[in-house]
């Protein structure tokens, strides 16, 4: 069978299975099967597929039709122009999270404390997952010291693999930690040998895309997300605020004077997040391209 025919047949079958964007998915899966790019698909529509290629394409199609996200089948997702390995241990990085990276870069570059350079900026990405935010920042801020935490050892393995692929291993320190546990001074073993202890109040920026969906919103979350993405990456607890409520005071302790906290939110929790940040300075909630509240920004005062 020719490439074009195989592709069209898969588009039809994905359409019948009600998979969203069936052509895009069919193209992604054939690019994965053949190890080629989109230009090749358009340049060689008459290329005959071997029996083995047809079988692998059909297997990928069948998995996609059961709802497995294409990114978990191909093992890849692009974020901030970088190719990330993804597995079911990590959330698939989303384009809207690029707004979080943009906000951090803006603050880092403005560096409102009158410092002569960005050389000593110390940043921590809390709940790094695939490493999306930490790697994007490491790439953009070559002199910053970057740390990344996650509670999932499997996620950290993926993040480390991504750092290695992009030659950023020496730029990011990964820590298995509950949020900033071990970083802030009230942690019982902060600084003890073998724990990720850093001096308290030592970060310039705490950034995070934390889990923020409430159990009560479960029905409104896409079935593919509910069924296949890690639950502890998406759901925070009954209200959706449970992780953010813990992150805010921990960030306050971890940040130095005038440090910034930047994290992703959803429109559903924007008002509550604003209340939780009532005692912070320069609080701002930014919208994404759809006009939905997406990024919370707040600054610690000199006194803390
Ligand atoms: C929404 S995902 C974000 C992943 C990645 N930063 C991104 O933007 O694509 C949230 C991440 O936080 C991690 N996580 C959840 N609870 C955590 C906790 N208490 N401490 C540290 N990480 C946590 C999850 O394992 C998951 O990797």
Taking all Cα atoms into account, the compactness measure Rg is 21 Å
Q: Which molecules other than protein and nucleic acid are bound?
A: S-adenosylmethionine
The CATH architecture category of the largest domain equals 3-Layer(aba) Sandwich
Major β-sheet strand ordering: 5-4-3-6-9-11-10
Helix content: 25-40%
Annotation, overall tally of beta strands: 11
Share in β-strands = 15-25%
What is the highest CATH level, the class of the largest domain?
A: Alpha Beta
End-to-end Cα distance, whole Å, is 67 Å
- Tertiary shape: elongated
Spell out the helices and strands N to C.
HHHHHEEHEHEHEEEHHEHEHEE
The major sheet is characterized as: 7 strands, mixed
Q: What's the topology here?
A:
Layout: H1 3-16, H2 22-34, H3 38-43, H4 51-65, H5 70-74, E1 76-79, E2 82-85, H6 98-110, E3 122-126, H7 132-140, E4 145-150, H8 153-165, E5 172-176, E6 203-208, E7 213-214, H9 223-228, H10 231-234, E8 235-237, H11 242-254, E9 255-264, H12 270-276, E10 281-287, E11 293-299
Parallel strand pairs: 3-4, 3-6, 4-5, 6-9, 7-8
Antiparallel strand pairs: 1-2, 9-11, 10-11
Helix pairs in contact: 1-2, 1-4, 2-4, 6-7
Bound molecules: S-adenosylmethionine (SAM).
S-adenosylmethionine binds at residues 90-91, 93, 97, 127-130, 132-133, 149-152, 155, 178-179, 209-211, 232-233, 243.
């Amino acid at each position: 069978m020719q490439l074009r025919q195989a592709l069209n047949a898969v588009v039809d079958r994905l359409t019948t299975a009600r998979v969203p964007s069936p052509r895009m998915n069919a193209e992604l899966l054939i690019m994965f099967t053949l190890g080629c790019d989109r230009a090749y698909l358009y340049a060689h529509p008459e290329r005959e597929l071997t029996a083995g290629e047809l079988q692998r394409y059909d297997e990928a199609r069948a998995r996609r039709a059961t709802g497995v996200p294409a990114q978990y089948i191909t093992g890849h997702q692009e974020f901030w122009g970088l190719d990330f390995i993804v597995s079911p241990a990590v959330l698939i990085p989303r384009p809207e999270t690029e707004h979080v990276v943009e906000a951090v870069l803006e603050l880092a570059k403005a560096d409102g404390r009158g410092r002569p350079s960005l050389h000593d900026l110390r940043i921590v990405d809390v709940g790094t997952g695939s490493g999306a935010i930490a790697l994007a920042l490491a790439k953009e801020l070559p002199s910053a010291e970057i740390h990344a935490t996650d509670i999932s050892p499997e996620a950290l393995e993926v993040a480390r693999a991504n750092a290695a692929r992009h030659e950023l291993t020496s730029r990011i320190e990964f820590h298995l930690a509950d949020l900033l546990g071990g970083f802030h001074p009230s942690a019982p073993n902060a600084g003890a040998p073998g724990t990720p202890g850093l001096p308290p109040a030592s970060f310039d920026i705490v950034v995070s895309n934390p889990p923020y969906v409430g159990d009560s919103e479960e029905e409104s979350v896409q079935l593919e997300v509910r069924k296949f993405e890690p639950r502890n990456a998406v759901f925070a607890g009954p209200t959706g605020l449970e992780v953010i409520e813990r992150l805010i005071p921990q960030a306050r302790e971890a940040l130095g004077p005038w440090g910034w906290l930047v994290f992703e939110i959803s429109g559903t929790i924007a008002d509550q997040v604003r209340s939780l940040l009532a005692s912070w300075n320069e609080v701002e909630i930014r919208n994404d391209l759809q006009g939905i509240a997406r990024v919370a920004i707040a600054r610690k005062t000199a006194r803390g």
